[in-house]
Write a structure and sequence with these properties.
34% of the residues lie in helices and 24% in strands. The chain has six helices and six strands; from the N terminus they run βαβαβαβββααα. α5 crosses α6. It binds inosine 5'-triphosphate. The site of inosine 5'-triphosphate has 22 residues, from β3.
Protein backbone atom coordinates (compact mmCIF):
# COMPACT_ATOMS: atom_id res chain seq x y z
CA UNK A 1 0.00 0.00 0.00
CA UNK A 2 1.17 3.56 -0.69
CA UNK A 3 2.29 5.55 2.30
CA UNK A 4 2.32 9.29 2.97
CA UNK A 5 3.52 10.79 6.28
CA UNK A 6 1.86 13.89 7.70
CA UNK A 7 4.64 16.10 9.04
CA UNK A 8 2.54 17.86 11.68
CA UNK A 9 2.16 17.63 15.42
CA UNK A 10 -1.03 19.71 15.33
CA UNK A 11 -4.12 17.47 15.81
CA UNK A 12 -6.54 19.98 14.34
CA UNK A 13 -4.57 20.25 11.12
CA UNK A 14 -4.14 16.47 10.87
CA UNK A 15 -7.90 15.86 11.22
CA UNK A 16 -8.67 18.30 8.38
CA UNK A 17 -5.95 16.92 6.08
CA UNK A 18 -6.99 13.29 6.69
CA UNK A 19 -10.61 14.18 5.92
CA UNK A 20 -9.63 15.58 2.52
CA UNK A 21 -7.41 12.60 1.67
CA UNK A 22 -9.68 9.83 2.95
CA UNK A 23 -11.14 8.97 -0.45
CA UNK A 24 -7.73 7.99 -1.86
CA UNK A 25 -6.08 4.58 -1.41
CA UNK A 26 -3.21 5.87 0.72
CA UNK A 27 -1.98 4.89 4.17
CA UNK A 28 -1.64 8.17 6.00
CA UNK A 29 0.95 7.96 8.75
CA UNK A 30 1.79 10.64 11.28
CA UNK A 31 4.66 11.77 13.45
CA UNK A 32 3.32 9.52 16.23
CA UNK A 33 4.39 6.55 14.06
CA UNK A 34 7.96 7.90 14.07
CA UNK A 35 8.90 8.86 17.64
CA UNK A 36 12.59 8.85 16.64
CA UNK A 37 12.13 12.05 14.59
CA UNK A 38 13.37 14.96 16.74
CA UNK A 39 11.37 18.14 17.32
CA UNK A 40 11.83 20.41 14.30
CA UNK A 41 12.86 23.99 14.99
CA UNK A 42 10.87 26.24 12.65
CA UNK A 43 13.51 28.84 11.93
CA UNK A 44 12.40 29.85 8.43
CA UNK A 45 11.50 33.41 7.44
CA UNK A 46 8.36 32.43 5.52
CA UNK A 47 5.54 29.89 5.60
CA UNK A 48 7.14 28.38 2.50
CA UNK A 49 10.54 27.95 4.23
CA UNK A 50 8.95 26.27 7.25
CA UNK A 51 6.65 23.95 5.33
CA UNK A 52 9.48 22.74 3.08
CA UNK A 53 11.73 22.37 6.13
CA UNK A 54 9.20 20.19 8.01
CA UNK A 55 8.37 18.02 4.99
CA UNK A 56 12.01 17.49 3.98
CA UNK A 57 13.18 16.48 7.45
CA UNK A 58 10.33 13.99 7.84
CA UNK A 59 10.82 12.61 4.33
CA UNK A 60 14.53 12.19 4.97
CA UNK A 61 13.95 10.32 8.28
CA UNK A 62 11.22 8.04 6.91
CA UNK A 63 12.36 7.68 3.32
CA UNK A 64 8.70 8.28 2.40
CA UNK A 65 6.82 11.18 0.83
CA UNK A 66 5.93 13.68 3.57
CA UNK A 67 3.27 16.40 3.59
CA UNK A 68 3.69 19.47 5.81
CA UNK A 69 1.44 22.47 6.48
CA UNK A 70 2.77 25.79 7.65
CA UNK A 71 0.04 28.27 8.33
CA UNK A 72 -0.95 31.33 10.30
CA UNK A 73 -3.28 34.24 10.82
CA UNK A 74 -2.27 37.63 9.37
CA UNK A 75 -4.09 40.61 10.90
CA UNK A 76 -3.88 43.91 8.98
CA UNK A 77 -4.09 46.13 12.07
CA UNK A 78 -1.15 44.20 13.61
CA UNK A 79 0.86 44.57 10.37
CA UNK A 80 0.53 40.90 9.51
CA UNK A 81 1.09 39.47 13.00
CA UNK A 82 0.80 36.87 14.48
CA UNK A 83 1.56 35.45 10.98
CA UNK A 84 4.57 33.21 11.13
CA UNK A 85 4.41 33.34 14.93
CA UNK A 86 0.78 32.17 15.18
CA UNK A 87 1.59 29.02 17.13
CA UNK A 88 3.98 30.89 19.46
CA UNK A 89 1.65 33.83 20.23
CA UNK A 90 0.68 32.43 23.65
CA UNK A 91 0.89 29.27 25.74
CA UNK A 92 -2.26 27.61 24.37
CA UNK A 93 -5.15 28.30 21.96
CA UNK A 94 -7.17 30.14 24.63
CA UNK A 95 -4.27 32.38 25.52
CA UNK A 96 -3.48 33.16 21.86
CA UNK A 97 -7.12 34.05 21.12
CA UNK A 98 -7.24 36.29 24.22
CA UNK A 99 -4.06 38.09 23.15
CA UNK A 100 -5.44 38.86 19.67
CA UNK A 101 -8.68 40.23 21.14
CA UNK A 102 -6.74 42.34 23.63
CA UNK A 103 -4.49 43.81 20.92
CA UNK A 104 -7.59 44.72 18.88
CA UNK A 105 -9.47 46.29 21.80
CA UNK A 106 -11.35 49.44 20.72
CA UNK A 107 -10.78 48.69 17.01
CA UNK A 108 -13.79 48.89 14.67
CA UNK A 109 -15.14 46.07 12.51
CA UNK A 110 -13.74 47.72 9.35
CA UNK A 111 -10.26 47.67 10.86
CA UNK A 112 -10.40 43.98 11.80
CA UNK A 113 -9.51 42.52 8.40
CA UNK A 114 -7.37 39.39 8.50
CA UNK A 115 -6.50 36.33 6.50
CA UNK A 116 -5.43 32.78 7.14
CA UNK A 117 -2.56 31.55 4.98
CA UNK A 118 -1.51 27.94 4.47
CA UNK A 119 1.50 26.68 2.56
CA UNK A 120 1.35 22.95 1.98
CA UNK A 121 4.47 21.13 0.81
CA UNK A 122 5.07 17.55 -0.19
CA UNK A 123 8.68 16.39 -0.28
CA UNK A 124 9.37 12.99 -1.82
CA UNK A 125 12.48 10.78 -1.50
CA UNK A 126 15.17 12.29 -3.70
CA UNK A 127 14.11 15.63 -2.21
CA UNK A 128 11.76 16.80 -4.96
CA UNK A 129 9.42 19.46 -3.58
CA UNK A 130 5.79 20.20 -4.51
CA UNK A 131 4.24 23.22 -2.88
CA UNK A 132 0.92 25.10 -2.99
CA UNK A 133 -0.64 28.00 -1.07
CA UNK A 134 -4.18 28.74 0.09
CA UNK A 135 -5.51 32.02 1.47
CA UNK A 136 -8.84 32.65 3.20
CA UNK A 137 -9.75 36.31 3.88
CA UNK A 138 -12.10 37.51 6.59
CA UNK A 139 -12.30 39.47 9.83
CA UNK A 140 -11.65 39.08 13.54
CA UNK A 141 -14.70 39.04 15.84
CA UNK A 142 -15.09 40.96 19.13
CA UNK A 143 -15.37 37.79 21.21
CA UNK A 144 -14.83 34.01 20.75
CA UNK A 145 -17.82 32.20 19.17
CA UNK A 146 -18.31 28.47 18.53
CA UNK A 147 -16.84 25.21 19.71
CA UNK A 148 -15.52 23.40 16.63
CA UNK A 149 -12.08 23.42 15.08
CA UNK A 150 -8.91 24.68 16.76
CA UNK A 151 -6.55 27.61 17.13
CA UNK A 152 -8.01 30.96 16.13
CA UNK A 153 -11.20 29.43 14.65
CA UNK A 154 -13.52 31.00 17.31
CA UNK A 155 -12.50 34.57 16.35
CA UNK A 156 -12.32 34.35 12.54
CA UNK A 157 -15.28 34.97 10.20
CA UNK A 158 -14.46 34.24 6.56
CA UNK A 159 -15.69 36.73 3.92
CA UNK A 160 -19.19 35.90 2.66
CA UNK A 161 -20.24 34.19 5.93
CA UNK A 162 -21.64 35.42 9.22
CA UNK A 163 -20.31 32.63 11.42
CA UNK A 164 -16.82 31.91 12.71
CA UNK A 165 -14.91 28.82 11.54
CA UNK A 166 -15.66 27.41 15.01
CA UNK A 167 -19.43 27.91 14.58
CA UNK A 168 -19.79 26.59 11.03
CA UNK A 169 -18.24 23.22 11.76
CA UNK A 170 -15.73 21.16 9.86
CA UNK A 171 -17.78 20.39 6.76
CA UNK A 172 -18.01 23.97 5.54
CA UNK A 173 -14.62 24.98 6.92
CA UNK A 174 -12.97 22.14 5.03
CA UNK A 175 -14.40 23.45 1.75
CA UNK A 176 -13.41 27.10 2.07
CA UNK A 177 -10.42 27.37 4.42
CA UNK A 178 -6.85 28.30 3.54
CA UNK A 179 -5.93 24.64 4.24
CA UNK A 180 -8.76 23.30 2.05
CA UNK A 181 -7.67 25.57 -0.83
CA UNK A 182 -4.00 24.54 -0.53
CA UNK A 183 -5.02 20.87 -0.35
CA UNK A 184 -7.35 21.15 -3.35
CA UNK A 185 -4.35 22.46 -5.29
CA UNK A 186 -1.78 19.91 -4.06
CA UNK A 187 -4.03 16.82 -4.24
CA UNK A 188 -3.68 16.55 -8.06
CA UNK A 189 0.10 16.48 -7.55
CA UNK A 190 -0.24 13.78 -4.89
CA UNK A 191 -2.49 11.76 -7.24
CA UNK A 192 0.04 12.15 -10.06
CA UNK A 193 3.01 11.22 -7.87
CA UNK A 194 1.39 8.05 -6.49
CA UNK A 195 -0.33 7.33 -9.84
CA UNK A 196 -3.67 6.91 -8.04
P1 LIG B 1 3.08 21.84 13.07
O1 LIG B 1 4.19 22.82 12.80
O2 LIG B 1 3.53 20.62 13.81
O3 LIG B 1 2.29 21.52 11.84
P2 LIG B 1 1.93 24.07 14.53
O4 LIG B 1 0.66 24.26 15.30
O5 LIG B 1 3.21 24.50 15.21
O6 LIG B 1 2.02 22.54 14.08
P3 LIG B 1 2.32 26.16 12.56
O7 LIG B 1 3.71 26.43 12.98
O8 LIG B 1 2.01 26.09 11.09
O9 LIG B 1 1.79 24.78 13.15
O10 LIG B 1 1.39 27.24 13.26
C1 LIG B 1 0.14 27.48 12.76
C2 LIG B 1 -0.72 28.11 13.84
O11 LIG B 1 -1.66 28.98 13.18
C3 LIG B 1 -1.55 27.04 14.55
O12 LIG B 1 -0.92 26.57 15.72
C4 LIG B 1 -2.83 27.82 14.86
O13 LIG B 1 -2.65 28.56 16.04
C5 LIG B 1 -2.94 28.77 13.68
N1 LIG B 1 -3.78 28.17 12.62
C6 LIG B 1 -3.39 27.63 11.43
N2 LIG B 1 -4.43 27.16 10.75
C7 LIG B 1 -5.52 27.37 11.51
C8 LIG B 1 -6.89 27.09 11.37
O14 LIG B 1 -7.37 26.43 10.31
N3 LIG B 1 -7.72 27.45 12.34
C9 LIG B 1 -7.27 28.11 13.44
N4 LIG B 1 -6.00 28.39 13.67
C10 LIG B 1 -5.10 28.04 12.72
Amino acid sequence: MLRLVLATGNRGKAIEIREKLKKYPLIIESLQDYPQIPEIEENGKTFLDNSVLKASIVSRYTNLPALADDSGLEIDYLKGLPGLYSSRWGKDDRDRVARVLKELEGITEEQRKARFVCVMSMVVPGNKVYTEQGVCSGKITFSPQGKYGFGYDPIFIPDGYDQTFAQMGKKIKNKISHRAIALDKIIPRIIAYFQL
